[in-house]
């Protein structure tokens, strides 16, 4: 390519499938770089889950906290248990955990066909959209300031 410098050290380039070792190495390298650049340290993962009396998963949420940012990666509620407030309770628990750990901001993505209205109803503001999701959809990005921890999270 024009203007591209040649690497003086011989290298090889491979395209392959899933590679856990590579994923771990890249995560370690980028985490170290990001921690040094921001002073925020390393992110800490957290989860929230709801199980029924038999111990089966009813709903769950995964996320991470990095400095003063709380992020939700995934939220899922079993189909036969939806529309009963479980998702709202999961999000309240995540927000409370973020507040407990000193977070001031919370972010969450949602595909346009998933739950953008749900997050808006929780006080999140849309901050952007990424095009190119299969089926002509968008990835919608949301933000919300985190306030003092809300009251106790009710049992589901």
Output the strand order for the largest sheet. 1-2-3-4-6-5
User: What is the strand tally?
Assistant: 6
Helix content class: 25-40%
| Beta-strand residue percentage | 25-35%
Instruction: Give the oligomeric state.
Output: single chain
Output the helix-strand order.
Answer: HEEEHEHEE
Q: Radius of gyration, rounded?
A: 19 Å
Helix tally equals: 3
Outline, from the CA principal axes?
globular
Average the pLDDT over all residues and give the rounded result: 92
- Cα separation of the termini: 58 Å
Short overview:
This protein is of the alpha+beta class and 156 residues long.
Describe, in plain words, how this protein is organized in 3D:
It is a single chain. Helices cover 26% and strands 33% of the residues. The chain contains 3 helices and 6 strands. A hairpin with a 5-residue loop joins strand 1 and strand 2. The radius of gyration is 19 Å and the shape is globular. The termini are far apart. The model has no long low-confidence stretch (mean pLDDT 92).
Descriptors for this entry?
3 helices, 33% strand, alpha+beta, six-stranded mixed β-sheet, 6 strands, 156 residues
Question: What is the secondary structure topology, with strand pairs?
Answer:
Elements (H helix, E strand, L loop, with lengths): L19 H19 L5 E8 L5 E10 L2 E9 L8 H15 L4 E7 L4 H6 L3 E9 L3 E9 L11
Parallel strand pairs: 3-4
Antiparallel strand pairs: 1-2, 2-3, 4-6, 5-6
